[in-house]
Each structure stands twice: as structure tokens, then as C-alpha cells.
Amino acid sequence: MSRKSIKKIVDKETKKEFKPKRSDKYSRLRGMKDILFDEYKYWDLVVKKATDLSTIYGFNHIDTPILEKLDLFERSTGKETDIVSKEMYAFIDKSGDRVALRPEATPGLVRAYIEHGMFNLPQPVKMFWLGPLFRHEKPQSGRLRQFFQYDLEMFGDSSPVADVQLILIAYNFFSELQIDAQIQINSIGCKECRAEYSKKLVEYYKERGKRAKLCVDCKKRFTKNPMRLLDCKEPVCQQIREDAPQIVDSLCDSCREHFIKVLEYLDELDIPYNLNPFLVRGLDYYNRTVFEVFAVNDEESETDKRQSALGGGGRYDELVELMGGRPTPACGFGIGIERVINKIKEKNIPIKEDRDNYIFIAQLGEQGKRKAFMLFEELRKAGFKVRQSFTKDSLKVQLEEADRIVAKYTLILGQKELLDGTIILRDMESGTQEVVDYKKIIFELNKRIEGNKN
Ligand code: HAM
After folding, report:
1. Got the DSSP string for 338-354?
2. Is the Cβ atom of 106 under 6 angstroms away from ligand 1?
3. Ligand 1 pocket test target in 33, 35, 104 with most atoms within 8 Å of CB
4. Per the CB 3.0–4.6 Å rule, which of 134, 168, 360, 423 could disulfide with 101?
């Protein structure tokens, strides 16, 4: 394609025209990220923490398809939510089915619970899920169109202890990654509590022309779902809501008791939290406990904060039945992995790199290379962390590579060692070298590494 044939493109959001450079032609989509080599140490750390904690607390790993029927999200997340009405990657596939790239994990996990008859398993069923999600939002730092979440869901347990266990795991996850997390929590009660509360809210917004000042979206919310008024990110709507009635004052006895128990447990466990009477969460399925997690000391405006929650979740006791399953109480949370990694980087939290005991195998000459190949396999099977660059012939280049990966020892196999049945063992820190019997190399390495191989 010649330069002349590159057409002007109009950015739908900014309405600006631009001519893509040649190099833009195959660049990645907006809001989508490549995870490059250096980034992986953060992913490894965060994924390991998520996996370890989930296993310890008895959650089982599960995965679901990235593509699901569009109806699944319309029915569960809710047709009127921003996620479904504005942000979904939805399309009709080649068979004419309406499908969508999953914008959140919970609906797929509820579907899997019902579809695989998991109500027949001992309850609660505890799921651990980690994967990519897609939301066509306006990209900015920490807000992507493809992002990853760590999700836990617990089905079949209605007790406040279940809510608390999830909040505890989320809290442990952050504090063990050295992120000071703060939990914001609220209860949005059951249908009955919300019916009563919605009436009070409507009365409040009708007073003294408040309704007229609301943003366009909130004017619609006012008739469709007044509780969403509390969730609006527009500063004017946030100001109007300041004196709005609080849902905790409209909770029925049973919802109030549930919420009090959750808070009592959190107090006992010393988990810091803030009651946030306006936290309603932007998804349709929640009832009773809802919570979000933020990093402490974030000097951001309320609006920025809402957009940079590290995680969020809550109870959704009616969703399984709504989706065609047996009545099953449930609760869960989702944590945004990229946002957690950003926080780790922003705060310069040191990452312990596990490089201590690398053993580099260097070789000289064709015969040396062959034997080094075998030695590599032997050491690997014996549990050592072996490294090599067998495609290189120069000893200097190989030693440079050993330095680069901060190897503890380098084993050198040359012509002379092959003839003598020996191998050179070089301590990379001190630079000292000794010649050892080839047959005793595993013994010698074990002696030095003292069982700390992996
Ligand atoms: P959510 O609040 O929509 O909840 O998302 C949870 C977390 O995912 C957010 O707090 C944030 O860290 C991350 N996140 C959301 N959108 C983006 C984005 N565009 N870019 C980067 N990170 C993002 C849910 O998804 C619920 N399904 C959570 C849940 C599970 N509730 C019960 N079980």
C-alpha cells in the first residue's frame, strides 16, 4: 500500500481527524495491552498470591468461555447498566447468534453453576477464577478495554461469615502485596428494603428542583432505577446526593442483623473499613452487603476514586434463581489485576526476584556442547534452576549472559575437562574457580546450594 492510499480516520470519541502513520497500521487496539517480558514479574507475583490465597481458603479453580450469549449479561448484569448498555463488545456471529465478549465473570460462573448441576455438590461451592474481560470504556491509566480480574465466588451460603471471608481474603491479598487497602462497605438490603428506600429517594430528589439539575443519564435513572442516582460520577449529581436519605435507615430487621454481624466480624478481625452509605455498585444483581476496595492515601477526587477501585463485590442471593437455577444465596468479588500492578509500581514496592540459585552451563567446542546438553537435562531433573545459551560459542559471551541473569555458579565444559572427566565450577560472585570431578557435580552443587534449589 502506498503512503497516498492511507485514508484519514475520524476518532469517534474526540471527533478529530488523523492520518495513521504507516507504523500504526497493525498497532494494537486502543485500551488493549501487550504484556511484555519485564512486566511479567509483576503478573507472576500477583497471580501467585491470588492462587495461593484462593487454595488456602478452599476455592477451586474454574474457567469459562470468553464468548457467551448476549442474553446472559442482559439478564444478569442488567440491560440498563453502563456495562451492558454502553460498554459491551456484542455482535451477531456467523450462525446468527447474539454473542458478547464477557464484560464480567460472575454471569458466566452462575451459568456454569446451574448448567453443571453444582447444587448437587456439597455447599458452599467456592470458585476461583482469573481471566480477561472486555469493556468498551474510554481508556485511561488503569482503565482498559481488555483487562484481567481475579474473582472469587461462593454459592450456597447465606451467612454473614461468607461475606466476611471474602472481604478478609481481599484484604489479605492487598496487605500481603504490601498495598494498604481500605474497604468501603454498605448494605443495599433486599427487594423490600429497596422498595421502601426508593420511595424516600424519589421524594428527596423531587424536592426543590433537584431533579432538574441532574445529568442526562440521571434524569433517565430517576424513572428507571432511582438507586443508581447515588452511583453517578458527575460532580453535580454527587453534590445533590450529599443529603440524600441513607439506605441503612430503611433496612428490614433481617437485613440489618446481617449487616451488623458482617461489621462485627470485620471489627474483630481488625479489618479497616469505611461505611459508605452511597455505595450501591453499578450492576443489577446485588443485595445486602456490597463493598469496594481502594488503596489508602489516594489523593484523588471522589470521581477518580470510583474509577480506580482496586476491587469490588458483594452478595447476590437472587441471581442463581433469576438465571433459571434453584434459589441459591451467593456472594463474590472481582479485583482488577492491572490496577493492582499499577499500584505496586507506583509505590515502588520491591519485588523479590528469585534468581539466587541459578546455575549456568557454559560449553566450548562441539563435544563440550553435546555433553553440556545432557548435563543440563540431568541437573534440571535433579531440581536445579539451570540456565544456558547453547547457541553461543564464545565463552566470553556465555559468561556475560550468566552475569546478566545473576547466576550463582557457572559450570564450564571445555576440551580439557572432557578429556580429564572434570568440570569447572565458577563462583560468579567471587570469581573463584575450582576443578571438580564430573561425576560428583550434583553432590558438589547440593553441598553449596543446601537444598534450596527451587
Ligand atoms: P466491577 O466493580 O465491575 O465488579 O469490577 C471489579 C474490578 O475490576 C474493579 O474494581 C476494577 O479494579 C477492575 N476493573 C473494572 N473495569 C476495569 C477496566 N475497564 N480496566 C481495568 N480494570 C477494571 C465486577 O466485575 C463484579 N463481577 C465483581 C463481583 C464478583 N461481584 C460479585 N462477584
Report:
1. HHHHHHHHHTTPPP---
2. yes
3. 104
4. 134
Per-residue cell: 388: 544456558
Q: Name the closest-CA residue to atom 28, ligand 1.
A: 334
pLDDT (tens digit, 9 = 90+) per residue, 67-111? 999 999 999 999 988 899 999 999 999 999 999 999 999 999 999
Question: Rounded to the nearest whole angstrom, what is the distance from the C-alpha of residue 335 to the centroid of ligand 1?
Answer: 6
130, 334 contact by CB (below 8 A): no
181 contacts 293 by C-beta, under 8 angstroms: yes
- Please tell me the distance from the alpha carbon of residue 377 to that of residue 431, in angstroms, as a whole number: 25
Report the mean per-residue pLDDT for the chain: 91
Q: Using the predicted structure, report yes or no on whether residue 304 has a pLDDT greater than 60.
A: no
102 vs 217, higher pLDDT: 102
Per-residue confidence band for 260, with pLDDT thresholds at 50, 70 and 90: very high
- What is the Cα 367 distance to its own chain's centre? 48
Which three three-digit cell numbers place residue 272?
479497616
Q: What CA–CA distance (Å, rounded) separates 9 from 25?
A: 12
Kindly report the pTM of this predicted structure: 0.87
Report the alpha-carbon distance of residue 42 to residue 338 in Å, rounded. 9
Beta bridge partners, 425, equal 411, 434
What separation in Å is there between the alpha carbon of 334 and the centre of ligand 1?
5
